[in-house]
Amino acid sequence: MDASDRGEARAALLTPWAPGGIAVIAVTGNEVEELIRARFRGRQGLPGAGRLAYGHWVTADGVIDEVLLRRCDAVAKGPSPTGFEIHGHGGIGPARAILASLEAVGVRIVSVDELSRARDEEAFVDAARLLLDRPASERAVRMLLDQVDGALGREVARIEALLSERQDLAAIADRLRELAGRAQLGIALCRPTRLALIGRPNVGKSSLLNRLLGRERAIVSDRPGTTRDPVSAELLIEGVPFGLVDTAGIRRAPDPVEAQGIDASWQAGESADCWLVVLDRSEPPQPEDREILRRCAGRSHVIVWNKSDRVASHAWAETDAPGVTVSCRTGDGIAHLRRELVDRLGLPVVAPGEAVPFTRHQRAELENAANEARRDPERTARRLRALRVAAD
Questions:
Q1: Whole-prediction pTM
Q2: From 3.30.360.10, 3.60.10.10, 3.40.1000.10, 3.30.1360.120, which CATH number describes the 3-135 domain?
């Protein structure tokens, strides 16, 4: 691609063509600053590099949308044209109107893939753009946009420069480990943590699912075996996505169809990242409860003591299993449980605009780089450079 092609004004919608909380349009090209200036009306004018400016997107017909304008000249393998991102209200209408206004002044509307190729961007930027096509939450969108803006690429490039100077390699290794540790946040925001609700019939699994979601998703009944096939749902807690699976009640089922559902429950549990083990503390422990607790050994799990609105059975005294006490009937303890689910992820606190790895491959390569930085800085620098420019 020659320089004239790279400088052509292009625009692409980064977020999906669907209703949502935010729509983000990227615009790039050598002449786009003047085009943006003609359409953006803000008290402070156009923003500086990496900055946001509040204003309105206008045409001769009036205001199209209330927007935040962000300047984000791409982090690229070579010289890069000017870039802006237009953050408007979610929904097809406003985004389509903004794109049409850009097309009317000569900006070519392209796909996200073509925009990335035109800007010759680093692998981090490419990978983040792909995930922006299916974001799990607005918090994930903000984190990924920081990486599109070059936060991760700049940090890795800075570490490469330090390695070339060969000064304080121990400190560089620590910096790499800290960066790899941030991937816990990036991965959690981009890939829902899978939770399986496990328990015997009538302990309140379906009621718990509905309480966590804040709406009725699973059928609730006093009749054992109501849930025969796993019921899936998605949940956001503080912008962190979770995938919930309500499974069939674990018991010895006389019905062959129910027995198949119970087998599916164990299979769903095997593929889950964490079990929510639901126990009814108002009744004495049953053999199925003990079997479930036995299978929890060595597995990530949270015990949920349901029916706190009833008198607890003294028979549970011998089971010293910490957990979260809730009442799915009244809602008591649900907020505590939601907080516990996020806390167990151990997500690091990262300021807006900072570098955050967001794939397991990135985390693994950064961890490998940290482990070899002190003994082979040249190889470590090559590893980081390959991570920055190669496909993820």
A1: 0.70
A2: 3.30.1360.120
